[in-house]
Write a structure and sequence with these properties.
Layout: H1 2-12, H2 20-60, H3 63-76, H4 81-93, H5 97-107, H6 113-120
Length: 134
Amino acid sequence: MFEAQNREIFDIVKPYSYPIPFKVIALASFFGLIYFFAFFFPKYYELNRVLKVAQQNFIWGNYGEALKGYKCILSSIKNSKIAKVHAIKAYFALKKTHKALNILEEIRLKLNDTDWEIITTHMPKELKPYFMRK
């Protein structure tokens, strides 16, 4: 009797049978991942390469070329904090303080200690007292 009831339950709920909403969500997740890797990943991969080249140009002292790379990133991703921080550093290195301060005004509240260290390494000495952390 007990075995007959178990067989009926197993006939009703088949193993490896998932509800339709679960299947729909799984398929949507799968196709969303495929869409991301097909359309967005190549763009961000290329921009990451541009960022690395721009940083290397900055290290070598090619501040103008580094700034072109940072501007290229900012043209694609307008709110890229990393590109803005490094662009500020490049403007300070090129002695274009006004442009650097304009960008700094946009992202001032979003900066952490590491960002401030990056920026203040090339900030003119007369400006450093105004931007000291308390």
